Amino acid sequence: MSQWSQVQQLEIKFLEQVDQFYDDNFPMEIRHLLAQWIESQDWEAAANNEAMAMILLQNLIIQVDEQLDRVSQEKNLLLIHNLKRVRKLLQGKYHGNPMHIAVIISNCLREERRILAAASMPVQGPLEKSLQNSVVSERQRNVEHKVSAIKNSAQMTDQDVKYLEDLQEEFDFRYKTIQSLEQNDKNSALIKQEMLALQAMLNTLDYKRKEVLSKIGRVIHEIDMLMSNMLTEELLDWKRRQQIACIGGPLHGGLDQLQNCFTLLAESLFQVRRQLEKLDELLTRLTYDGDPIPVQRPQLVEKVNFLLYNLFRNSFVVERQPCMPTHPQRPMVLKTLIQFTVKLRLLIKLPELNYQIRVKATIDKNVSTVSNRRFVLCGTHVKAMNMDESANGSLSVEFRHLQPKEMKTSSGSKGNEGAHMVTEELHSISFETQVCLYGLTINLETSSLPVVMISNVSQLPNAWASIIWYNLSTNDPQNLSFFNNPPAATLSQLLEVLSWQFSSYVGRGLNSEQLNMLAEKLTGQQVSYNDYQLSWAKFCKEHLPGKSFTFWVWLEAILDLIKKHILPLWIDGYVMGFVSKEKERILLKDKRPGTFLLRFSESNLGGITFTWVDQLENGDVTFHSVEPYNKGRLSALPFADILRDYKVIMADNVPENPLKYLYPDIPKDKAFGKHYSCQPNEVSKPSDGGGKGYVPSVFIPVSKILNDSAEPHSPSDLLPMSPSVYAVLREHLSPTAIETAVS
């Protein structure tokens, strides 16, 4: 079943997450129509190779053309229209930057895998529960309801101001009419009656002015209360969700809803500001003793301007944190002289601001870091915000060509510090701009989450560990001295984040048994998840007992192994992986002979091994584990083929494959058959021919198991095998295969 078919079978709450990252940059109808073709391409490699990305883009356009021909015959007008629009988009937007579409598609496929993994996990962790609790959802609905009510109140006040203006114009006309009469006419009874009517009208005007000012005051108060409480909490929650999403957690939606709230509040405040300006205009035409406008209006104008300043300052956010396109799963880790991207948005979407706001990017502005390393940003670091580049029309700007460059120190050389020191340094990328609108000038500033600067890709794993620990432990966006005294982390939350590393990076998270093994690995004992606090040093700096590497280096090597060599097997759930040798024997001891499981090596970095159970003639159970396969060996032969072709020579017996059933009882070929790269190897004979007269050769993994009574290895073990053993092998394998296996 294709990945897209699995996505379509998800529950509605997961489908809503999928809907969030498909937009006009990569329309969902193309994902749907070309599902199998899209999934069969290596978009991640193309994201780092412009020539490959250009070929894939051209092939994508060809695929769209073929679909367009098909739907044209079916006369599907709507689909024809959409496909023509998509074709125009692909040719126009990505022709000059084909790697951009490769990055987008790669990210979409990765997010799909993460959501599929999350859907398959039966229990939510504490972090994910905290981000999705009902209190937060209720507050979101309340904010939207209150913003809508405020907008309505401001519009109703507009009508009151218009009524007040009409009433004043009538009063002004009647008053001037009386003033134009001769003195004798003013003494008539009719005029006196008119004067009484004017006095009543003036009383009404005074009442209406007070009423309008009161209504304006209430609207301002409601906006102030909403901004100070619920809207601020909503924005902080969104920023926290963004932090968690950056380290592999659930996707963080809600920015469009926040934009709607910010924009409506800004429109309401500008509407109130115009109402106050209209009152000032009415004041210049008519005032009187006890007039409330000159007393109350200045305070209200000052309050409105203050709220607008705060609203704009809070609306300037980093929509997408700094990230190298070459490492989309490792945001906030930046390598010197390598381009990164970052996107900002102004949540107040007003047409008057389109292309009017220029944003400048700097690094470590007015900030003292924990080291003497200093950086500058090269590339285009000033750009205008606009509504044209974003699929949803938001007012945003994306920097795509920034590069950090390390400056020389006063001594004339670049900073040179230990690897851990470098990867624990935090830096800040800042952005500043100025908004000039309706007589207001507002300076805006915001910053990215802390980033780690590396100069060598070998520093990436430890740098990513720093990013994980920081964003797990604090919601402070600018604590650059965090690693001077890093706090401990709750084990339950850390394990949840570690599971996210697997779900986001290799498409399948960890179950409770796998997490239990990691917990014991981290703590050296069985502990309560909820109470145990783990130190930063234990996670990333101290070597595991008896090993020459840390826990994180060990885990990162496993992630790399899965990604590059056993990804399909991992996604299918056939790699148990995290199980200790002791637990392994407990699981296998009661199983039938030939039952095996796959686990990651605890002693070799990036190694995977398999252990099978066998039964001796006396009925005793024995276990055999093969030497771990690392990326070097797996580059030569796919792991599924190794499992299929693996042979064991026991004493003088015929070579046979001892692997029969994947734990608990799945026939091996049923589990791995679809992942075999070719048909099982058959014995090659000279008559079979081969390239240029040679006998075709095969590579078969072979192990030799000595009897329990055998002496330890001696130099004689390295001599050629006996003629009788060789004869048995020759019946089943070609000479080339024997030579390759023995070598």
From TrEMBL:
Protein's organism: Lanius ludovicianus (Loggerhead shrike)
A GO biological-process term: negative regulation of developmental process
Family membership: Belongs to the transcription factor STAT family.
InterPro entries registered for this protein in UniProt: p53-like_TF_DNA-bd_sf, SH2, SH2_dom_sf, STAT, STAT4_CC, STAT4_DBD, STAT4_SH2, STAT_linker
One Gene Ontology CC term in the entry: nucleoplasm
PROSITE patterns, sorted: SH2 (PS50001)
Alphabetical keyword list: Acetylation, Activator, ADP-ribosylation, Coiled coil, Cytoplasm, DNA-binding, Isopeptide bond, Methylation, Nucleus, Phosphoprotein, SH2 domain, Transcription, Transcription regulation, Ubl conjugation
Lineage: Eukaryota, Metazoa, Chordata, Craniata, Vertebrata
The keyword Acetylation is annotated on this UniProt entry: yes
Any Pfam family hit: STAT_alpha
Gene Ontology molecular function, alphabetical: DNA binding; DNA-binding transcription factor activity, RNA polymerase II-specific
Gene3D superfamilies in alphabetical order: EF-hand, SH2 domain, STAT transcription factor, all-alpha domain, STAT transcription factor, DNA-binding domain, STAT transcription factor, N-terminal domain
Record's subcellular location: Cytoplasm; Nucleus
Full protein name: Signal transducer and activator of transcription
Residues of the SH2 domain: 570-672
